[in-house]
Every structure is written in C-alpha cells, then in structure tokens.
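Hi R.,

Here's the chain you asked about this morning:
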Amino acid sequence: MENWINLWQQIPGHINPNIFEIGSLQIRYYSLMYIVAFSLTYLLVSYRIKHEGYDYKPEIIQDYFVWAIIGLLIGARVGYVLFYNFDYYLGHPLEIVLPFEFTGGFRFVGLTGMSYHGGAIGVLTASIIFCRKYRINLWYFADLLCSAIPLGYTFGRIGNFINGELFGRATDMPWGMYFPLDPTHQLRHPSQLYEAFFEGIVLFIILWSMRKKNLFNGFMSALYLAGYGLFRFFIEFFREPDAQLGFVWGWLSLGQILCIIMVVIGMGIFFYPKEQKCGGKKLR
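And here is the predicted structure, written out as tokens:
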C-alpha cells in the first residue's frame, strides 16, 4: 500500500507538460485542453438545440463561439493582469500581449497567467454584444449555454494539473502530491483535481439534470453563478494563494472574494429575475 501511495504522490514529477518542443517553442497539453473544452461545450449546446426544440441555426452558434473564445482569451488575460499581478505588468507591459519573457534574456514562454473571473467577464461582455447584434434574448441564450459550460472546466483544470501549476496548500494527507514547481517541495493538495471534479463534473451534473426546469429566463444562469461561486469558494481553502498576493482580506484569498461576488449576483438574478417565465423557443 505504501508503494502505491508513494507512486500517487510522485505523479506530477513524471508528467511532461509539453506535447512537443521545437527549440524554445513549446506546444503544451494545456492548450489542447482549451480546444477540448470548447469542442465539448459546442457539442453539448448543439445537442440541446437539436433535441430540445431551440430554433437557433448552426451558423449562429458557430459565430457565437468565435466571439466567446475571443472574449474568454482577452478577458482571462486582462483579468489576470489587473487582479493578480498588476504591479509586475505595469513594469513589463509588452509581456501582457507578447508570449515572450524579456527579464534575464529573451525567451518564448507563452501567455502565462489567465484568470477565470476575468475570462467570465470577457465572455459575458462578448455575449451581450453578440445578442444585441443578432437581437437574441440574452437570458434565454445564456440559460442554453450555462448547462453545458462546466464540463469544459474539467479539462481546463486537468491542464493546470499537467502544467503542475495552481497546486494546493501543504498537507499531510496521503492523497497529497509533490509538484515540481513548488520551491518548498512539500506534500500538497492536488487542488486542480478537486476543482476539475466539483467545478466541472459535479456542477455539470447538477445543471444538466435541471436544464429543462427553467422557472424564468436567467434561472440556469443564476444556478451556474451561485453554484460555481460556492464550489470555488470552498476549494480555495485547499488551494495555495498566489505568492504575489497571499491573503487579501483576513483569511480570504482574492479568488474567494470574487466568488462571493458571483454568488451574490447569482442570488440577485434568482430573486429578481428579469422575466418570470421562459421566453419562446423561436428567438432566432
């Protein structure tokens, strides 16, 4: 049994995060996880449209995903810069948009640093603009998407795990792991896997099972915001706060504060819905 525990604890050290390398250029599994996440979400949304009577043309959904991907990438990057490392990027502005590091030389590192909450704001902004452009009911459209989105998080967090980043706090639990990027070489919670399971699989099961029970336009969106916020808030107790920030308010991390805001917004939508009943299926 001890051998199996030791093998489990050493798994991160045996994972190569790169699919392949050409000189300083690295193609990582993390990028592949993004592709898988978006593809899976698109397939689930397409399934709902085909089998649940939504009158959206495939071209509309395809166009939307282009907007959503752009909004996510821009929002996640800008969110990380503003929320988590503003002082550093204030002195290194080129690194915000260029995948190179200029400190101590010149090398390709990719765009390291993405914020979930920034990405969510980016997708929301893109969705608002898209729905206004095509005269689509935003709340109704968001409810269609929210039931499918969480499963994509599973692959995003697996990508974090493969990268060996965003590991958890030190622990003496036998399921803890040693991460190569940890300078202290302590046994730590594999918090990326906790997030993959709860924010991804569990939240997806909850929302997918309730997708046909909309009480009003915005119902699924409210559940998504409150559900993700709650899961992430509690998992943050096992996740190591960003070194440059630490705890920003007592024992709360910045991620927890942002999650509290998500829960409040979700509850606000639930108790003060924009529309009391679901809109018609034939919107566009």
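One quick note: The chain has one domain: 2-271.

Cheers,
M.
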